[in-house]
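Protein Record: Sequence and Backbone Structure Tokens
======================================================
Tokens: labelled as protein backbone structure tokens, with as many entries as the chain has residues.
Task: work out the structure tokens from the sequence, keeping to the layout shown below.
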Amino acid sequence: MDATATYVLPYVLRLADTCLIHSQRLSEWCGHAPVLEEDLALSNIALDLLGQARALLTYAGQLEGVGRDEDQLAFLREERDYRNLVLVELPNAAASPSDGAGGRDFALTTLRNAALSIWLELLYERLQASTDAEIAAIAAKSLKEVRYHRQHSSDWVVRLGDGTAESHGRMQAALALLWPYFNELFAAEGVAGVGPAWKELEPEWRARWAALMQEASLTLPRDSAMQPRGIDGIHSEHLGHLLATMQYLQRAYPGGVW
């Protein structure tokens, strides 16, 4: 691995793993969404994110230079080797045990979707100008997808936040739970010419988020000093359980093909 790849690889893996794990969490809604149309929408968003993860992991394998492909990077790494945001590994946990969606909380999923799609849109906009041609190409293609994700999820945030007393309460509770984890959206260092430091995205992300919260009649919580470090391989207890499900088939039948 040359000197440039040494810095670019972690940058690519942080984005690739975030898309991969976010996709896995969204896929858990397949067959369980509140309405059929949303079941299809969430599944399609998950597939878009999986496609972005595949492209990024393929490139990560090339940068790494030890012969690992996208499948090996996705399914055969240990928990501590993943570099995704802790935000995306949090379960689709219900706000209360009596939730009718089998322990899934649509409010949490909707808010997380919106926060990440705004962030990804800002990041991909900047990565289009990367001096790394492969990253620039992936960003240009992915940007078209995340713009739809942002529009779709934002519509749901407004509909639920400014809806009934129950939907508003659930959205406010989900926002309070997720808010500290948003800090990690701005934690990664940049690579000169290749990709910006995530901190550079914070002012515009906060402005867009505040406008969305106002439209949805939601109150922003107090800022938290908590600093998750999933991008450094320090994860919550939830990632191991997710990987056990995601990696099972590949580990049970190594190298299996259809």
About this structure: Residues 95-101 have pLDDT under 50 and may be disordered. The two ends are 33 Å apart (CA to CA). The chain has one domain: 3-252.
